[in-house]
Amino acid sequence: MRNINEDNITQAVIAAMSQCSNDRLRTVMTSLVQHLHSFARDVHLTEDEWFAAISFLTEVGHITDERRQEFVLLSDTLGLSMLVTTQNNRKPAECTEATVLGPFFVPQAPRFENGEDISNGAAGAPCFVSGRVRGLDGAGVPHATLDVWQSDEDGFYDVQLPPGSEGDIEPRARAQLQTDADGRFHFRSILAEAYPIPYDGPVGQMLDALGRHPWRPAHLHFWIQADGHEPLITHIFRNHDQYLDSDAVFGVRSTLIVDWLHHEPGVAPDGTKMDVPFYTVEYEFVLNPLGAHA
Fold first, then answer.
1. Where in this chain does the record put each Intradiol ring-cleavage dioxygenases domain (predicted)?
2. I want to staple 118 with a disulfide (CB 3.0 to 4.6 A). Which of 10, 99, 175, 186 is the partner?
3. Domain spanning 70-286 has what CATH number?
């Protein structure tokens, strides 16, 4: 493999992968090399720009840890996450649309029963969330598992806050629940607010250089899993949020925008007497059966 030049380098790299026994890996890497090389040719990438890109990705790696996934953030802000989500979640129109997972999901969230308060001290106006999970046949899906997570009124998720005295992250506004026999669920939390994605690292610097803001519209995350149905990763968004049409991660779907109703002090849906204003929001999630196609 000698005398490589800009005309034959792409084919040389592809040929070097010819012995790969994993067909899918070889297909993906061949396409990746072709597109990377085409990009470098299209923009006539300079050596300084190449080094700047390497330094940028190095910084993305350095700032990533168990509490912060800067690579997911990079994928989100470049629209790659939403592209992968949409092309892997083609479903019948009646099904609830999927959107991005985001960088703040944590597995094995605390278990809560329906009706309990999941906020655990997170700051924000009280909000009572209810809804139903059903299938395409209209029947409620019993015992579906719901992972739910959100930021507080200052825009911080629990994993972004300082650890407790023992060095652990205290879960707040994060929970795992199950639907009842009719597919229904309800819990108390706090009002979702718009917030900026972390912009104190390389991804934030990239957004600033591109003249983009880091804000996401107010939303509540759901990951729903149930036997016999495809899993659903999605959000519900607050109607009238100023960032609905400029979400930094391109995740808004019109079908996921919901009215979060304001109530003066009084009796909440669960019978609690509230001395402060509160909110309610309700949504019905429709799951796609396993093996079904759009």
1. 129-157
2. 175
3. 2.60.130.10
